[in-house]
Specification:
The protein has 432 residues and is an all-beta fold. It has one helix and 31 strands. It folds into two domains: 2-319, Distorted Sandwich (Beta-galactosidase, Chain A, domain 5); 328-425, Immunoglobulin-like (Sandwich), CATH 2.60.40.4070. 1% of the residues lie in helices and 51% in strands.
């Protein structure tokens, strides 16, 4: 192992295997990337627990390629080496013409080596991985991976640069592979959706289309035995995968007026499960594991030579189960914040999972939206669950409340808001 000088973030480079493995460690979060394998993040661990899918037949726990590395690629899906992890592709995908990305497999953007550098910014570190220039798409992919102490969030910027000699039109596409939720459990994939006419639709049926439900602005896809894909034209800016007591989220911006690939898909979800033989309609792809792909799709952009477009995704991990109601910069809302007047003052309840260390502060707002008071109500720990049941004395004139997580020497991030119920009752003893 070779140490790279670092401040609060520990950065090491493992050169003992066939490829360099870059590790970024910041408190409870550990990120492992292999630039030589398509610039992939192949480990995202919270307190030692791995949350990403890694193809164990191809890679060991150190992210080293195994000696038996699968069949020699012949350009078909049947021999594609799917290592797993988090990667950047251009969209739309297809094989009909030069305006579609004919991968994977792909020798440059998906499977080629990426150059890399590490830079430090106080308590932050940034790993930058850059692909070779792809002559077919005209693109070079740049992936910036930012970690920061005191958080369980990794910010990944997916940048497509036109390094060719002609105008092109592409969208950045973040493909995150996770172990698929088992059928018959409460685990699953969740997405915030808006109130459009078609928030979710079928996109690709290998063995069939995944089943889904939509309730109160949240789409849910449970674990199921199917190979297929859904598109979410109505994605509102967050995705969450719940499995085995941990939740992995993606938080991103959407543009209601933007043009998106696949007939307006802002996000997509792919499920696969083991198959006895290759699926002819998918180019001979034969899944050997239960995998879920949680995919964020950026806007289509017309790029002249030298221009670029990018997509930023905040990738966070925390302990927690249940149905995510929304994802905010500070954490996941598992049970929405409620606030009500009681005989003793104001009672706040809710369940959350936080993405950063800090004080949970309640800002009390008047009917005009102006702050009346601000009080600490709890302490948040990055990646940990937070159950809130507190009573605040007074709060006369309070109309609404806003919860924020205030980091030490840093800005506060929104967690949840609630209107105050106009009931008056004594709800019994609570703790703070």
């Amino acid at each position: 192992m070779t140490d790279v000088p670092s401040g609060s973030v520990e950065v090491t480079v493992d050169r003992s295997g066939p490829d360099e493995v870059v590790w970024l460690r910041a408190g409870a979060i550990e990120v492992g990337a292999v630039p030589a394998l398509g610039g992939r993040i192949l480990a995202l661990r919270l307190a030692g627990h791995e949350t990403l899918y890694r193809n164990d037949a191809l890679l060991d726990e150190r992210l080293h390629r195994r000696a038996d590395h699968g069949p020699e690629p012949d350009g078909t899906m049947a021999t594609w080496r799917n290592y797993g992890g988090d990667k950047t592709w251009p969209a739309p995908q297809g094989w009909d013409g030069p305006g579609q990305w004919a991968g994977p497999p792909d020798p440059v953007l998906d499977s080629g080596p990426y150059a890399w550098t590490v830079a430090e910014y106080g308590e932050r570190a940034r790993l930058t991985m850059t692909s070779g220039a792809d002559p077919r798409s005209g693109l070079t992919v740049v992936r910036e991976v930012d970690v920061e102490t005191g958080t369980s969030t990794v910010t990944v910027t997916h940048r497509l640069v036109n390094t060719g000699d002609r105008p092109v039109r592409w969208a950045p596409w973040n493909v995150l592979q996770l172990p698929g939720p088992e059928a018959g459990t409460g685990d699953g994939w969740f997405a915030g959706v808006d109130d459009g006419a078609v928030p979710v639709r079928g996109l690709l049926a290998g063995t069939g289309l995944p089943a889904w439900t939509v309730d109160a602005g949240v789409a849910r896809v449970a674990g199921q035995d199917v190979v297929g894909k859904l598109a979410l034209p109505g994605a509102s800016g967050w995705l969450a995968t719940v499995r085995g007591g941990h939740t992995v989220t993606q938080h991103f911006a959407v543009d209601p007026a933007g043009r998106y690939p696949d007939e307006g898909a802002r996000a997509e979800v792919w499920l696969e499960c083991p198959q006895e033989r290759g699926i002819e309609s998918l180019g001979g792809l034969r899944p050997t594991a239960r995998i879920l792909e949680s995919e964020v799709v950026g806007r289509l952009a017309d790029l002249a030579p030298g221009e670029h477009t990018e997509l930023t995704v905040r990738l966070s991990v925390c302990r927690g189960t249940g149905t995510p109601r929304r994802v905010r910069p500070a954490g996941v809302v598992l049970r929405e914040l409620t606030a009500e007047h009681t005989a003793g003052g104001l009672r706040l309840t809710g369940d959350f999972a936080a993405f950063a260390d800090g004080d949970v502060v309640c800002r009390i707002l008047g009917a005009d939206g102006r702050p009346l008071a601000e009080r600490p109500v709890a302490t948040a720990r990055a990646g940990a669950e937070l159950s809130l049941d507190v009573r605040l004395a007074g709060a006369a004139g309070a109309h609404a409340v806003e919860l924020r997580v205030a980091r030490p020497d840093g800005p506060a991030s929104a967690l949840d808001t609630a209107m105050i119920k106009p009931t008056l009752r004594d709800s019994g003893s609570t703790s703070s």
